[in-house]
Amino acid sequence: MFTMENGADILKKRMRRGIIAAFGCYLMWGVFPLYWKLLSHVSSLEVIAQRIIWCCVFTVIICFVGRWDFVGLLKDRRALCYLIPASILITLNWSTYIFAVDIDRIVETSIGYYINPLVSILLGLIIFKEKLTPLQWAAVSLCCVGIVFFTADYGSFPWISIILAISFGLYGAVKKKGGYPAVEAITVESIVMAPIALVFAIVFATITGGHAFGGDTSSLSGWITTLLLIGGGAITAMPLILFASAANSIPLTLLGFIQYLSPTIALMIGVFANGEPFTLAHAVCFGCIWCGLVLVGIDAVRTSLKASKESTVLTTPVLTPLEQEEELELPRSNS
């Protein structure tokens, strides 16, 4: 028999699973640079193509096992109007990320993913006609100040960070506009790009002679390279599945805070494991972005508390004068 206590236990278990899924998702995204570094001997172009191909394979398998209908989305013209642009944007994001790791610019990738929430705020203003609060305006302004200082002091525009932030921000906006389930949608996106990636991989291998995938099957290193390229598809699909589970189980405000785990890990890997420089320009840029994120977090908490109070007021029953008299008389009648 279902009781209120059972319902509360179910919600707690769902929340716990959602938090674990969120941490697992962003932990995987955070340590991705270490995985792609294992393929540093392979052209980043081939890595990107193989990632798309094997992501397609794994997501299709996951959909069949989980009985998720992605075929319906493939036949839906409206869905394709959103998912084809989304597939192009996520491919651009993946390509930029892998290229950045390949040229030892991991710190710049972390800047990009720190900026991403602020880009999402701006896109909400432009695309969804949302209004920015004073704290959100301050956060966006701080982000702009950080980028301008970085460009002026470091001597080069952080184009990797900007491309990553804008491409993923636009990707999220397109997905929100479409409103399709995450697992089925990423499967369709992979299917859209897979034929192009497959043709590219074949042509690239033919022209350059670099057959990294299944090329040298006579040596252990050749087999390891092949397995790593195949595994690239799996580690692309798995965090997306975890993200979908987390998004459906915990509040987006909580998910938003957990997401900063990923770029923080990437920053640590870039500085301490990869030996990348952390200059004054980096420090000021990160400082401005982190201050902006704190303001966004404060604003999110204030909004959540305000909504909670309003919900409590709306759900509080309003008693009529007669009911109020009965409530006042009730204690005396029982004494």
- Share of residues in helices: over 70%
Beta-strand content bin: under 5%
Provide the residue-averaged pLDDT. Answer: 80
Q: H/E order of the elements?
A: HHHHHHHHHHHHH
Runs in which pLDDT lies below 50 for 5 or more consecutive residues are 318-328, 330-335
Radius of gyration: 24 Å
In total, the number of domains comes to 1
Give the termini distance in whole angstroms.
36 Å
Query: Outline, from the CA principal axes?
Result: globular
Q: Main beta sheet, described?
A: none
Describe the structure.
The structure is a single chain. With 335 residues, this protein is mostly helical. It has one domain (16-313). 82% of the residues lie in helices and 0% in strands. Helix 1 (4-37) packs antiparallel against helix 9, helix 2 (44-66) packs across helix 9 (220-247) and helix 4 (77-102) packs across helix 8. The longest helix is centred in the last third of the chain and has 36 residues, at 280-315.
